[in-house]
Amino acid sequence: MSMTMAEKILAKSAGLKETEAGNIVMANIDVAMTHDLTGPLSVESFQKIGVEKVWDPEKIVVLFDHQVPADSLEAAQNHIFMREFVDKQGINNFYDVKEGVCHQVLPEKGHVIPGEVVVGTDSHTCTHGALGAFATGIGSTDMAMVFATGKLWFKVPETIKFEIEGKLGRHVYSKDVVLNIIGQIGADGATYQACEFGGETTSNMSVSQRMALCNMAIEMGGKTGMVEVDEKTIQYLKGRTNKPYQAFKTDEDADSLTTMYVNVNDLEPQIACPHHVDNAKPVTEVEGTPIDQVFLGSCTNGRLDDLQVAAEILKGKQISSDVRMLVIPASREIYRQALDQGLMNIFVDAGALVCNPCCGPCLGGHVGLLGPGEVSLSTSNRNFKGRQGSPEAEVYLSSAAVAAASAIKGEITDPR
Ligand SMILES: CC(C)[C@H](C(=O)O)[C@@H](O)C(=O)O
Ligand code: SF4
């Protein structure tokens, strides 16, 4: 039977030969991730089930990233509570305050491999599908059941495959591609679909750029984002994991597959305007909009290539005195590489604030919040009302290149 990548992975994880979209399968979970913000709820629910020990401590990853270092007594208490859980359950895959954002750290540390089922109590767990896994966000009570049993049921999703063709122009990136797709199909355009990204443009992208595509799958309602395994995936995995893995591909004649063709030859840098991610416009339509803060970071665009692009633009320049710019590398590994490459000197000399790897202002719970009437330009993935602080603030989303060029001018700027 012809199947999609999502169907093949879910069939394998449920011990079935085949399955099809719409079926309910009981999957064996390969990786279960929780963090400082949703972890306490997951653990409290787990404790209510009454099972003493988690099903397999080696398959659980606990990580602190949303409020690190603790910015409130509540955050500190959450951290203490989670450290006690990790200790009691013998969970070795524990990353305390220093490592960075979960969706960057898990792939980096080799926890994500092709063909496996990864669940996390965070909606952007779909990012990990860039390595050919089936990865999705789940609720804290679902995670409690995973902790207890190692299993979770899924309705097998249909697949929408974005065949991306054409050559990206100068200073046009995967973030622009995915914002444009979301603008076209809407925030509910791929509801409960496995969003697979393919075509020659995707093949030419780095794993990092593919992660930005998959990261945004949830912003069009997707159950997961996915990219087929290729040489770049294999190179990425090298030195990170020795675990054997299976690479699955979507059969072109699979019943549950819909294809959307996207040509990027003439694509301009895109901006998602307040207060919805699907309110995407070409930068030329919004350039000149004054901004108060620029946030370069997050699980969407806080990776080394993003920092490199931004540093190239900021080199020898000064950030506008009307703007605060926050640079937050997505992980310690990226921070280290950025230091080695001299990127941090460029940011500091330009007048940016460099913070420790964490989620930062992305969801308005930690550093760098916006006041009423303020405007942020952010490389993250959501611009909902109140997302980065005051409900009277506005958030625009863009690539790292637009963010850097705009920081210099103090207004939304076309980096080209
Ligand atoms: C805190 C967490 C539940 C949340 C998510 O699931 O996405 C956060 O990471 C976000 O980006 O809004
Ligand atoms: S960086 Fe933002 S989107 Fe990513 S996990 Fe953190 S809060 Fe969520």
Automatic annotation (TrEMBL):
Q: What class of enzyme is it?
A: lyase
Q: Which domain of life is it from?
A: Archaea
| Ranges for domain Aconitase/3-isopropylmalate dehydratase large subunit alpha/beta/alpha | 8-285
| UniProt cofactor note | Binds 1 [4Fe-4S] cluster per subunit.
Where are the annotated coiled coils located? none
Q: What is its EC number?
A: 4.2.1.33
User: Can you state which reaction this protein catalyses?
Assistant: (2R,3S)-3-isopropylmalate = (2S)-2-isopropylmalate
* The keyword Protein biosynthesis appears for this protein: no
Alphabetically, which GO biological process terms does the record hold? L-leucine biosynthetic process
Q: Which UniProt keywords apply?
A: 4Fe-4S, Amino-acid biosynthesis, Branched-chain amino acid biosynthesis, Iron, Iron-sulfur, Leucine biosynthesis, Lyase, Metal-binding
Chain sites annotated for binding [4Fe-4S] cluster: C299, C359, C362
Cofactor field: [4Fe-4S] cluster
Functional pathway: Amino-acid biosynthesis; L-leucine biosynthesis; L-leucine from 3-methyl-2-oxobutanoate: step 2/4
One GO molecular-function entry: 3-isopropylmalate dehydratase activity
Q: Name one Pfam family in it.
A: Aconitase
Family per similarity comment: Belongs to the aconitase/IPM isomerase family. LeuC type 2 subfamily.
Oligomeric form and interacting partners: Heterodimer of LeuC and LeuD.
Among PANTHER family, the record links this protein to: HOMOACONITASE, MITOCHONDRIAL-RELATED, ISOPROPYLMALATE_CITRAMALATE ISOMERASE LARGE SUBUNIT
The role this protein plays is: Catalyzes the isomerization between 2-isopropylmalate and 3-isopropylmalate, via the formation of 2-isopropylmaleate.
Q: What is this protein called?
A: 3-isopropylmalate dehydratase large subunit
Per the UniProt record, the source organism is Methanobacterium formicicum (strain DSM 3637 / PP1)
